[in-house]
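ARCHIVE CARD
CATEGORY: sequence design from structure
SOURCE FIELD: tokenized fold
FIELD CONTENT:
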């Protein structure tokens, strides 16, 4: 996972050593970021310790509650017919691995705009870059023009829309865990972000905390879901927007990225993950398991609809262990082999616990990593 560090703006600090793409000269890349300048927006603090101040003290009133009040029925019961639609899709998903002829992910039971995002039509408007500092806070029904920076445990964001012009939509700081982002829509504003107009992360994990990202509609951000530890499921990641970053080159683009050095486990299950951006504009992968900060391990990628990227899946390289990639559909909607260079690179077939099985192109052809 990215080690963004302290109060600095996000950056990947290391080179992606050894990732040279199929003789096409995709160089190891030193990625971007620098501390926000003096023009950074002052944060709004929610749930601050005694003695702290907020630039908008009344803003969060009436909209937050303790985590125990967020019952299972609140999380899983959809409003306005969404439950029945989701149930229909779930039935279709049971046979989705075999149904490779579908024209769209939704037709095969995979997540799309209809089955992800907020389940409510009523929102409370908020704005600003909001710091969450109370354990167990629940952000529900917000329409936030801004971002969330989480300095607390067991925070839940649910049925919320976030339109960010910050480095991230939601960020979890080091030393905290238990963040859940459910049934929400996370997007950016192209041209308005701090990285030379771009926005880097829909969800960012600066430390080793657990994050669950489920039933979310995610678009625009460069490295949309950036985490090495947690559970990514039933999400729709799409319409990634390329941009030239502060370093003067195109930002590298991934729907899901893990930078390694985390043994606690990452599961990526039943998502639609799309990266249509051409390689000349910075595309890297759909799922990038990149050992930037340490080996990739204990990672499961299962029952996803994947399309695009330079290579669709980067498999973690020679040191990867415990990586299971099974039952995924590799769509040819953007390229004949799913990724512009191919479906998979840097797969370690001999790694302990590594398993590659039953992964198919939408043509029905089995996807087999090169040996």
């Amino acid at each position: 996972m990215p080690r963004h560090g302290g109060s600095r703006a996000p950056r990947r600090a290391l080179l992606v050593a050894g990732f040279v793409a199929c003789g096409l000269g995709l160089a190891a890349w030193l990625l971007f970021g620098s501390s926000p300048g003096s023009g950074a927006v002052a944060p709004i603090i929610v749930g601050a310790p005694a003695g702290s101040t907020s630039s908008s003290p009344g803003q969060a009133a009436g909209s937050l509650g303790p985590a125990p009040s967020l019952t299972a029925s609140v999380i899983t019961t959809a409003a306005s017919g969404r439950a029945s639609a989701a149930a229909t899709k779930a039935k279709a998903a049971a046979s989705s691995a075999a149904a490779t002829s579908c024209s769209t992910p939704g037709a095969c039971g995979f997540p799309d705009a209809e089955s992800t995002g907020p389940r409510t039509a009523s929102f409370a408007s908020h704005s600003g870059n909001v710091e969450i500092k109370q354990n167990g806070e629940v952000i529900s029904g917000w329409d936030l023009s801004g971002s969330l920076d989480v300095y607390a445990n067991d925070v839940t964001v649910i049925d919320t829309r976030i339109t960010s012009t910050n480095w991230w939509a939601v960020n979890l700081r080091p030393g905290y865990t238990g963040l859940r982002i459910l049934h929400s829509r996370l997007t950016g504003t192209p041209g308005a972000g701090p990285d030379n107009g771009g926005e880097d992360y829909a969800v960012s994990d600066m430390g080793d905390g657990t994050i669950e990202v489920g039933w979310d509609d995610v678009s625009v951000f460069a490295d949309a879901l950036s985490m090495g530890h947690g559970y990514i499921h039933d999400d729709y990641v799409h319409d990634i927007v390329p941009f030239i970053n502060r370093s003067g080159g195109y930002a590298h683009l991934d729907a899901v990225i893990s930078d390694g050095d985390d043994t606690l486990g990452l599961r990526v299950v039943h998502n639609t993950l799309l990266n249509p951006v051409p390689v000349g504009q910075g595309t890297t992968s759909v799922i990038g398991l990149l050992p930037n900060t340490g080996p990739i391990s204990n990672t499961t990628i299962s029952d996803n609809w994947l399309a695009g990227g330079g290579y669709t899946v980067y498999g973690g390289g020679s040191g990867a262990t415990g990586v299971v990639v099974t039952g995924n559909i590799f769509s040819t909607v953007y390229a004949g082999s799913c990724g512009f260079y191919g479906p998979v690179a840097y797969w370690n077939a001999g790694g302990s616990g590594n398993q590659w099985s039953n992964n198919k192109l939408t043509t029905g052809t089995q996807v087999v990593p090169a040996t």
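CARD ANNOTATION: The two ends are 27 Å apart (CA to CA). Confidence is low (pLDDT under 50) at residues 1-40, 49-81, 91-98.
SHELF: design records, drawer C
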